[in-house]
């Protein structure tokens, strides 16, 4: 029954998309949209209500995403929405394909250079300072409130200063990423290193374990869930930092540069293509960190039951 | 709490000292070149004094930033286009309008998700996934698209701020509405409470801690959103416009004072939310 419904909804939307591209409009358009959307809503409702584990649980969100995309295409083409307002998914896809080399250059400049370098440096520095703060309690008590305070500040605002200091190329963007990723890593690592239980610490002390051994055998494993939380929070932050920093000046390549200049030229389909790249890169980055988390903290309750 | 005061002050003092050292170090070349051109050979004390008093330093000293902040907020009339109060208000109004819209939408979405099962299964994964997407990159699109509709000024900025706000609130509130345990929900059922009664008397009060956690994140995000929204549009007023203009013309003092103002604004707003949270928690009484 569900498969039949899915088939009907797919066929309905396919027919509707073909019709609007052929020039369907007016009341017929609205009737078609209402019928197809009704079918789709029924389908999503059924999929969502059915019990599903693992891959089967993905059916409802995937169907919902496909429906949104199809409605977007039908409405934009059918109502002849100007491209400046919102390009159709098909137009974005076509532009994406044509501009692939350009998008790849921007991706290399912004993601492979600025984001990855800044992410590694920022997370590494935050981690190192947290290790130090864990040994020096005075430092920990001084840094922790400050680190939480920084979370309330618009850190990305230092982008113009860093662009001035480090030049227009990717180094300045990496510096912005460092500034944005440093504090979440610091705060989470400090919290994580304090997460090991008192009982286990006492046990290690009774074994005369050195501080290094205690760190390696007890505190770091206990801190891993916190570390990965910070790594996951930082993944999209890093991309945002690099893109926004490019708004303040960059060489004539880069995702943020392309987005601002093409938006000013009203080439919105290219801007949307760039957004697609950013979205895919951001989700893939996040997904990779999440996969690493599952592999590294397989013993943690949140993963075991997940 | 008081145990933390001394360490925090020490770390702050160390940061300020580092800042002064950095200012001397970074502006040294600037001053040295200027003095060499003038044919002067100042001694060390004079050099340090000069590095901390440059009109367009590479890194301004803290007291210069404070002085600039004071000059541009207190000595100029509020209506002046060079007054930082004016710019801060432009950004603040957009951030607050966006905050209101985003929070309302986020809470409404959370209510819908908690009550409609299919919505959770189909929409919730997208909300979570969209957090991994650099939302701020959409800012130029929103500005251009709304500009094409003839909307300019406050509204596009507020929409971007709202877009950033709504995720933390929606996700936190879904968790919060689910916070009451099964026992409490069962108790409500034995009283044959309607869904509305369960919502108002059980779910809503239980969700307040989550609401405030989400609100604080959202407030900071709203300020960031309003500032970034001012970057691509060539906005004439607002803290983001000050940052951009400062970076075009190398007016470092202007950048730093705008940045300090943004930090003050954001910290104050989040602090106010913290106060409200405490007041509400007191009204709710001790937790069982």
UniProtKB/TrEMBL annotation, chain A:
Domain ABC transmembrane type-1 as annotated: residue spans: 126-294
Domain of life per record: Bacteria
Subcellular localization: Cell membrane
Keywords: Cell membrane, Membrane, Transmembrane, Transmembrane helix, Transport
Membrane topology: Multi-pass membrane protein
Pfam family, one: BPD_transp_1
TM region positions: 28-45, 57-81, 111-132, 144-168, 174-199, 237-259, 271-292
Protein name: ABC transporter permease
Organism: Falsiroseomonas selenitidurans
From TrEMBL, chain B:
Regions crossing the membrane: 88-114, 126-148, 154-174, 210-233, 253-276
Keyword Transmembrane helix listed: yes
Keyword line: Cell membrane, Membrane, Transmembrane, Transmembrane helix, Transport
ABC transmembrane type-1 domain residues: 88-274
Keyword Nucleus: no
Membrane topology: Multi-pass membrane protein
Secretion signal span: none
UniProt subcellular location: Cell membrane
Pfam families the UniProt entry points to: BPD_transp_1
InterPro entries associated with the record: MetI-like, MetI-like_sf
Similarity comment: family membership: Belongs to the binding-protein-dependent transport system permease family.
Protein name, UniProt field: ABC transporter permease subunit
Organism per entry: Falsiroseomonas selenitidurans
């Amino acid at each position: 029954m569900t498969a039949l419904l899915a088939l009907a909804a797919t066929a309905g939307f396919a027919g509707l998309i073909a019709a609007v591209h052929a020039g369907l409009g007016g009341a017929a358009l609205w009737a078609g949209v209402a019928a197809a959307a009704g079918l789709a809503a029924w389908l999503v409702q059924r999929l969502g209500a059915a019990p599903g584990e693992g891959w089967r649980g993905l059916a409802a969100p995937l169907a919902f995403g496909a429906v949104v995309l199809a409605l977007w295409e039908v409405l934009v083409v059918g109502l002849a929405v100007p491209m400046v307002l919102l390009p159709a998914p098909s137009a974005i896809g076509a532009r994406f394909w044509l501009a692939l080399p350009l998008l790849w250059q921007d991706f290399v400049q912004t993601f492979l250079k600025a984001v990855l370098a800044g992410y590694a440096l920022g997370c590494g520095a935050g981690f190192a300072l947290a290790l130090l703060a864990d040994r020096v309690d005075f430092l920990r008590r001084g840094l922790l409130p400050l680190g939480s305070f920084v979370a309330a500040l618009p850190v990305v605002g230092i982008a113009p200063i860093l662009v001035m200091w480090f030049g227009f190329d990717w180094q300045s963007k990496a510096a912005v990423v460092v500034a944005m990723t440093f504090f979440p890593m610091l705060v989470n690592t400090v919290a994580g290193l304090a997460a090991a239980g008192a009982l286990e610490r006492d046990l290690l002390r009774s074994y005369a374990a050195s501080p290094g051994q205690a760190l390696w055998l007890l505190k770091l494993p206990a801190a891993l869930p916190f570390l990965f939380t910070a790594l996951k929070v930082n993944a999209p932050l890093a991309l945002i930092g690099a893109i926004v920093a490019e708004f303040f000046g960059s060489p004539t390549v880069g995702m943020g540069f392309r987005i601002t200049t093409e938006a000013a030229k009203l080439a919105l389909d290219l801007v949307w293509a760039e957004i697609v790249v950013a979205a895919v890169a951001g989700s893939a980055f996040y997904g990779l960190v999440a996969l690493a988390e599952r592999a590294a903290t397989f013993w943690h309750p949140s993963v075991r039951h997940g | 709490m008081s145990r933390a005061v001394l360490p925090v002050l020490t770390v702050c003092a160390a940061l300020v000292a580092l800042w002064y050292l950095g200012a001397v170090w970074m502006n040294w070349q600037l001053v040295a070149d200027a003095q060499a051109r003038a044919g002067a050979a100042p001694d060390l004390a004079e050099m340090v004094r000069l590095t901390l008093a440059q009109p367009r330093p590479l890194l301004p000293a803290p007291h210069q930033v404070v002085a600039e902040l004071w000059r541009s907020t207190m000595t100029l009339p509020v209506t002046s286009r060079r007054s930082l109060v004016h710019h801060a208000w432009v950004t603040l109004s957009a951030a607050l309008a966006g905050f209101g819209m985003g929070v309302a939408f986020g809470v409404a979405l959370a209510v819908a998700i908690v009550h409609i099962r299919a919505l959770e299964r189909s929409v919730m994964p997208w909300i979570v996934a969209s957090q991994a997407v650099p939302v701020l990159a959409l800012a130029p699109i929103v500005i251009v698209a709304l500009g094409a509709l003839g909307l300019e000024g406050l509204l596009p900025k507020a929409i971007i701020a709202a877009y950033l706000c709504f995720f933390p609130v929606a996700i936190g509130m879904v968790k919060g509405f689910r916070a009451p345990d099964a026992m409490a929900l069962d108790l409500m059922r034995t009283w044959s409470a309607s869904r509305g009664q369960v919502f108002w008397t059980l779910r809503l009060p239980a969700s307040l801690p989550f609401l405030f956690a989400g609100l604080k994140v959202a407030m900071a995000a709203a300020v960031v959103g309003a500032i970034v929204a001012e970057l691509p549009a060539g906005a004439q007023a607002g803290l983001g416009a000050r940052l951009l203009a400062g970076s075009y013309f190398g007016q470092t003092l202007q950048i730093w004072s705008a940045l300090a103002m943004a930090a003050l604004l954001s910290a104050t707003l989040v602090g106010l939310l913290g106060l409200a949270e405490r007041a509400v928690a007191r009204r709710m009484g001790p937790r069982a």
